[in-house]
Amino acid sequence: MADRYAYAIRFEQDAVGVAVLCRDLPELNSYGDDRAHAVSEAVDAIETTLSLYIDQLRAIPEATPALEGEHVIQLSAMTLAGIARWNALLALVQAREAPAANRDEDIERELENPDNLFKCWRRLDDGTYVALGRLAFTTGLFIGVQAVTPYKRRYCYSDPTEAHAEYLRLTTGDDVPSGWIARRPETAEDKEAKSRPGYDPSVFWPKRDD
Questions:
Q1: pLDDT at site 131
Q2: Which of 53, 68, 86, 109, CA to CA, is 20 to 30 A from 159?
Q3: Are 11 and 20 in contact (CB under 8 A)?
Q4: 82 against 114, higher pLDDT
């Protein structure tokens, strides 16, 4: 699997330093003082670019064979495992996308309104609309988005990647995501947990093990 995501980069020297480019990841943008520095910066640049793909709900592409003069970057085992999980989850969701029939045009008009905070959305099999949106300090997962009232439930995530994964895992409006740090409306259970000394949301509402 490592070779499937061993991206080849090429270097372009200018008067200031070395630019890094990647055919398989055209969004990649990195720079180094010299070639060695450029290689060390390339790993972070690739992982940042992969995060962009996740943020845009896009599949992460496989690498193509290196061409003459290119340098191959090997990613960590943790990153490779994350790529595999993300692509598998995205493929599963795309395979079960709700048909166009019976959609609610009023809700979808609100979801597409650029004045609203929603950045992406989907309709579940039971007709529930869910969406992701940027909040002041977190990423919000909204369940039960409506045309009149904004939503039925909202979950806040400090990690955007975790928010995207939970968003894609939802199958019905009754599903409860995991890994969040706050939710609205707050429940009695939330208030009781927050009143305890040393409250840590990751302990009370942990992430998934998978």
A1: 93
A2: 109
A3: yes
A4: 82
For residues 70 and 11, the answer to whether their CB atoms sit within 8 Å is no
pLDDT bracket for residue 130 (50, 70, 90): very high
CATH classification for the domain delimited by 2-95, as one of 3.40.50.300, 3.30.160.250, 3.30.230.70, 3.90.1330.10: 3.30.160.250
| From-to residues of CATH 3.30.160.250 in the chain | 2-95
**Predicted model pTM:** 0.64
Q: What residues pair up with 9 in beta bridges, in sequence order?
A: 22, 71
Query: What's the length of the chain?
Result: 210
Residues 63 and 190: their CA atoms lie apart, in Å, by 44
> Between residues 190 and 97, which one has the greater pLDDT?
190
Identity of the residue numbered 63: A
88 near 32, Cβ under 8 Å? no
- Distance from C-alpha of 8 to C-alpha of 26, rounded to nearest angstrom: 12
Q: How many CB atoms lie within 10 A of CB 115?
A: 5
Residue 142, Cβ neighbours under 10 Å: how many?
A: 23
Question: Tell me, what's the pLDDT at 206?
Answer: 54
Strand 118-123 and strand 129-134: pairing? antiparallel
Q: Where does residue 200 fall: left (phi above 0), alpha (psi -120 to 50 degrees), or beta otherwise?
A: beta
Query: Tokens 């927050």 sit at which residue?
Result: 194
Using alpha carbons, select from 160, 173, 157 the residue that is nearest to residue 122.
173
